[in-house]
Specification:
Blueprint: H1 2-27, E1 29-31, E2 38-40, H2 51-103, H3 112-122, H4 160-164, H5 167-173, E3 196-200, H6 208-212, E4 219-223, H7 229-239, E5 248-252, H8 263-278, E6 283-287, H9 297-317, E7 320-322, H10 343-361
Parallel strand pairs: 3-4, 3-5, 5-6, 6-7
Antiparallel strand pairs: 1-2
Length: 362
Amino acid sequence: MVATRVKAIVRKNVAMQTEVPCKHAAVQVSGCRECLSLSLVLEGSGDTSCVRCDQVDDLLSLVAELKEEVERLRSIRECERETDWWAHTLPSLGQGQQMEALQEAEVPLPSCHQAGGDLRDGGEWIQVPAQGGRRIPSRSPSPSQLPLLNRYGALELEDRASEDQGVDEVLSREVPRPSQAAPRILTSSEKRKRRVIVVGDSLLRGTEGPICRPDPSHREVCCLSGARVKDITRKLPGLVQTSDYYPLLVVQVGSDEIAERNPKAIKRDFRALGRLVERSGAQAVFSSVPSVAGKYTERNRKTHLVNTWLRDCCHWWHFGFFDHGEVYTAPGLLATDGVQLSQRGKRILAHEMAGLIERALN
């Protein structure tokens, strides 16, 4: 009897001990005051925050940051639109000023003192900051750069012959213009098979076969019909590739403009072409302007002046100079117009160029 009673008491105590922890665990559940959701509080920690509320706060902060980013992008887009508008408006304003300058060509220009007085009476420059918090660095206006009118704009209406006369005097008195990036010819220093580029005017038409036949993949003839020296200067940087190693440039130009232009203008264009080729690191050979036979005495006089000057410049630039001499004054080498070469003359020119290239490469 005693043993059974003890066992009953022990069983009862065990049941009581198992019920207490269950009642204690139920008390640990609490609710969030903001979202009214239940959250489990760990024993011994004072943090009663709700996970859902924390996630909502994070989302709200992200939305606020996105709104600020959208406003910033809108301000940038407005600034770009304003810049594009000014870029399209300024050229038209410049053309309008040139037309006004042509109409008022007879009106004397104001002196520097009068210009200064007008600037002072007109007020001061005010810098307006761009939208979006981006500041433009302040730049003080220079009084010497304010008059942007072209005093020599009326010369553009004259023909080419009068335009070429007195070029040096006009350039010495011209208002200084902002410097532009000059075109450059870039070559490679990695040693590989050399390319040959023959460029010139319509005199080279029909000479491609004998010139390119020895090595068609590394030789090129570029014939620009009616081209001038300045046209070769603009075209040459696009013909030379950056992967070319020490290319050979052969220039045959001048015959299409020697009769129309002034020798001073032709020399100026040759000087610009020489400076371009000199900085490229390529091997260059300039051919002379061929002389013609017949009644073209004035043309031959200009040809002699340009060829003599070009020979000295090539010696100064360390370029090669190939003189055709009086070869094409022989009968049957010129076409009916007396200026262009006949088929026989073109064959002779092609073989001369091919021999020149072989000697230059070797």
